[in-house]
Design goal:
single chain; alpha/beta; 3 domains; nine-stranded mixed beta sheet; six-stranded parallel beta sheet; 49% helix; binds N-(phenylcarbonyl)-beta-D-glucopyranosylamine
Length: 833
């Protein structure tokens, strides 16, 4: 390609091609240029928002220069690429990350200062990109950071929602949802109006003869919607690699159909069609670990899968390789089952459009795809009704039936005397209506299936996917324990700690090789180091105390023990256990003498997180937390001994302030329910200790940091089923301390008891599915051990330092290298300067 362009032309392009700014003065020049020309502002009317926009545009220019070069490099070398398909990318803010990743934050700070701005205020103007619900979406964002940092040729594919996750407001203690319109003036995306794909829905399947007389299926008529690409540059840390996140936006196809309507004077209906097309990418479904089976959600899934695959296939076809080489060029990872239709769509492209034989096509498909499962919760497992799919995607349903037929035939051969297994593993559940089990398609259509922590992967093999282990052998199933990117969750969120560590280790190399943190253990007795470490934690607590004051009006004493639980609100995550524990503590303090109160360790219990708008029990838990806060925080008799805070609208940028400020954080899900958890890692990486159950990655965190450095409690996963069974048959005794808590609630201590009756009844009367009562005693006594341990400041500090030193395993860099080796078989693409 390069050689076909005449030298003089190339010379002219080289001469005038854009250059990155490399120092403060050049940055300032770019900033002022953007403010004056792109934004049409001046010295006299440049507010903080304009300063943010100008800074973002200057950095965006830098990223896009490297983005172009990266894409050219990847195209020329033409090696295998990774495509990460995720319905959620919870990116948070981009500017601070871009500054740190390209190593120009200091230059930006000084440049902004010259022009009269504080960099923190400027960074604070950015609206979070909140295209995700929780763990799954944030993991995708951390993966993109590591993929770029490690120089993997990789693209993310997602949806460009007009509305991300809703903004949460707390009104009279209740959660209210406010739409999050975030796209105005978003400098981080590049619309590609030239990159569009027409996506079809509905219609019928006809059998036709092709030119060789072979009978082929043809999907005809139906409606089409256009997918338009929007690209977001993803810079790696300390590397020139800048990868791409491609988000699809929906709009009406500019087909004749619309023109006919316009011409026929049917203006209103033409506009309505347009709006209905735009609805597809309008809003992120706000459910975490819950699937509702709505048609529009299935439309979103197909729209995004089909557009992404068209794009991937188009890129592959440019190389003129044989189809058999597709899996050598392309690895596609499914982030949970949401993109499972990509498997079906790929098979459709190969057999219906490219004319391959079924077996040859299917072999290519299975070698290409990998599937990551993120949850064992039954309510989160995707099933789509057959009639719904028949109507929306008639050809895909046929292909699903064929996949199922061939699969069941092979199972029957393998287990000739076992009728039961066929109905258990069938993709089609024989219910009314029949349902398509998406996880089964994902397993059958992939060469590797992985869970996100050891316990979770073991549970998949021994329960949910047991039959498939018998069928395919255990090698198809693997574990890749989650991590977090240390760039955002240490360096960006906790710059002071990052510099202190760098000072001791002789540089910031630990940010790209987190195992180097182990060298910190040598300084655990270093007095000066310990003093600085403690000081940084205090400062971070002060920073959070200011956020709390600004957002809730409550004043908290930063000397208190900060106990934090921030994550989506869900019964399985058991924020109710936490708030019942807080009530227990409150009642205890109320009953104490003055002398006893002197011994109480002052504590601030901090909560944050969103409930799915239709999840009433989760909303009730939020309501209870806020009512308890109102009573406790205004009880002068208790004062600083206990404060309860609910931080409104928990999101990525608030997490960056919250995670560095914990003394202890809570990861207390019913054993066996949390896939991994990743906030546990963020808190420990920032020097907080944790209280948790033997669940998800808590188990591996314990193995790494040592069981003397973590507060574990509660029943084990292996005992959960038996306990539930016993409850079901009436063998249930409410824990006596919990009974007192319930009595206080029922005596209207926190407002109208009726507001909380569903919550207490779920435990007392309806079987306590999440084992709150079973774990209550163990939880409360473990919290007492936390108090005790916190009194010994020196030992607590040693635990904090030692834990951080042993967190090297939990970087997404390690995670991505594991995926690359064991699932994708891809190599990084070295960048020459
Ligand atoms: C969201 C929607 C559907 C299914 C799963 C999720 C989800 O967010 N799962 C979470 O994924 C995280 C990343 O792997 C895990 O750390 C969490 O434990 C898991 O709940």
């Amino acid at each position: 390609v390069e050689a076909s362009i005449p030298e003089p032309l190339r010379e002219a392009w080289r001469k005038y091609s854009a250059h990155e700014f490399t120092n403060k003065d050049e940055f300032e020049r770019e900033l002022v240029r953007h403010i004056e020309t792109t934004l049409a502002r001046s010295l006299y009317n440049c507010d903080e928002l304009a300063a943010y926009s100008g800074t973002a545009l200057a950095f965006r220019d830098r990223l896009i220069i490297e983005w172009n070069r990266t894409q050219q490099r990847q195209t020329f070398t033409d090696q295998k690429r990774v495509y990460y398909l995720s319905l959620e990318f919870l990116m948070g803010r981009a500017l601070d990350n871009a500054m740190l990743n390209v190593g120009m934050k200091d230059a930006a700070r000084e440049g902004l200062q010259d022009l009269g701005f504080r960099i923190e205020d400027v960074i604070g103007q950015e609206h979070d990109a909140a295209l995700g619900n929780g763990g799954l979406g944030r993991l995708a964002a951390c993966f993109l950071d590591s993929l770029a940092t490690l120089n993997y040729p990789a693209w993310g594919y997602g949806l460009r929602y007009r509305y991300g996750i809703f903004k949460q407001e707390i009104v009279n203690g209740y959660q209210m949802e406010v739409p999050d319109y975030w796209l105005d003036n978003n400098p981080w995306e590049f619309p590609r109006h030239d990159i569009t794909v027409d996506i079809k829905f509905y219609g019928q399947v006809k059998k036709k003869q092709d030119e060789n007389g072979k009978l082929v299926a043809s999907w005809e008529e139906g409606e089409t919607v256009q997918a338009v690409a929007y690209d977001v540059p993803i810079p790696g840390y300390g590397t020139k690699t800048t990868n791409n996140l491609r988000l699809w936006s929906s709009k009406a196809s500019s087909g004749e159909f619309d023109f006919q309507k316009f011409n026929a004077g049917d203006y209103e209906s033409a506009v309505a069609d347009q709006q209905s097309a735009e609805t597809i990418s309008a809003v992120l479904y706000p459910n975490d670990n819950l699937e509702r089976g709505k048609e529009l959600r299935l439309k979103q899934q197909y729209f995004w899968c089909a557009a992404s695959l068209y794009d991937i296939v188009r890129r592959f076809k440019k190389t003129k390789r044989a189809w058999s080489e597709f899996p050598d060029q392309v690895a596609i990872q499914l982030n949970d089952t949401h993109p499972t239709l990509a498997i079906v769509e790929m098979q459709r492209i190969l057999i219906d459009i490219e004319g391959l034989e079924w077996d040859e096509a299917w072999n290519i498909v299975t070698k290409t795809f990998g599937y990551t499962n993120h949850t064992v919760l039954p309510e989160a497992l995707e099933k789509w009704s057959v009639p719904l799919m028949q109507n929306l995607l008639p050809r895909h349903l046929q292909i699903i039936y064929d996949i199922n037929l061939y699969f069941l035939q092979s199972v029957e051969k393998q287990f000739p005397n076992d009728r039961e297994i066929l109905s258990r593993v069938s993709i089609i559940e024989e219910s009314h209506p029949k349902m398509v089990r998406m996880a089964y398609i994902a397993i059958i259509g992939s060469h590797k299936v992985n869970g996100v922590a050891e316990l979770h992967s073991d549970l998949l093999k021994s329960t949910l996917f047991k039959d498939f282990v018998d069928i395919y052998g255990v090698d198809r199933f693997t574990n890749v324990t989650n991590g977090v990117t240390p760039r955002r969750w240490l360096h960006q969120a906790n710059p002071a700690l990052s510099s202190l560590i760098a000072e001791k280790l002789g540089g910031h190399e630990f940010l790209t090789d987190l195992t180097l943190l182990d060298k910190l253990e040598a300084f655990v007795d270093d007095k000066d180091f310990r003093r600085k470490w403690a000081h940084i934690k205090s400062d971070n607590k002060l920073r959070l105390a200011r956020l709390i004051k600004d957002t809730t009006g409550y004043t908290v004493n930063p000397e208190s023990l900060f106990d934090i639980q921030v994550k989506r609100i869900h019964e399985y995550k058991r924020q109710q256990l936490n708030i019942f524990g807080v009530i227990h503590r409150y009642l205890k303090i109320k009953g104490m003498s003055a002398a006893e109160r002197k011994k109480v360790v002052p504590r601030v219990s901090i909560f944050g997180g969103k409930a799915a708008p239709g999840y009433w029990m989760a909303k009730t838990i939020i309501h209870l937390i806020n009512k308890v806060a109102a009573v406790v925080n205004n009880d002068s008799d208790v004062g600083d001994l206990l404060k309860v805070i609910f931080i409104e609208d928990y999101n990525v940028s608030k997490a960056e302030i919250i995670c560095p400020a914990s003394d202890i954080s809570e990861h207390i899900s019913t054993a066996g329910t949390e896939g991994s958890g990743t906030s546990n890692m963020k808190f420990v990486l920032n020097g907080g200790l944790i209280i948790g159950t033997c669940d998800g990655a808590n188990i591996e965190i314990t193995r790494e940091i040592g069981d003397q450095n973590i507060f574990l409690f509660g029943n084990l996963a292996e005992d959960v089923e038996d306990l539930r069974h016993r409850h079901f048959y009436g063998d249930f005794q409410l824990d006596p301390a919990l009974e007192k808590v319930f009595k206080a609630i029922k005596d209207n201590m926190f407002g109208d008891a009726g507001d909380f009756s569903a919550l207490t009844a779920s435990i007392e009367e309806h079987g306590d599915y999440y084992l709150v009562s079973d774990d209550f005693h163990s939880y409360v006594t473990t919290q007492e051990m936390v108090d005790e341990a916190f009194l010994n400041k020196e030992e607590w500090l040693a635990k904090s330092i030692t834990s951080v030193a042993r967190m090297g395993f939990f970087s997404t860099d390690r995670v991505i290298n594991e995926y690359a080796d064991s699932i994708w078989n891809v190599e990084p693409l070295a960048v020459k300067d």
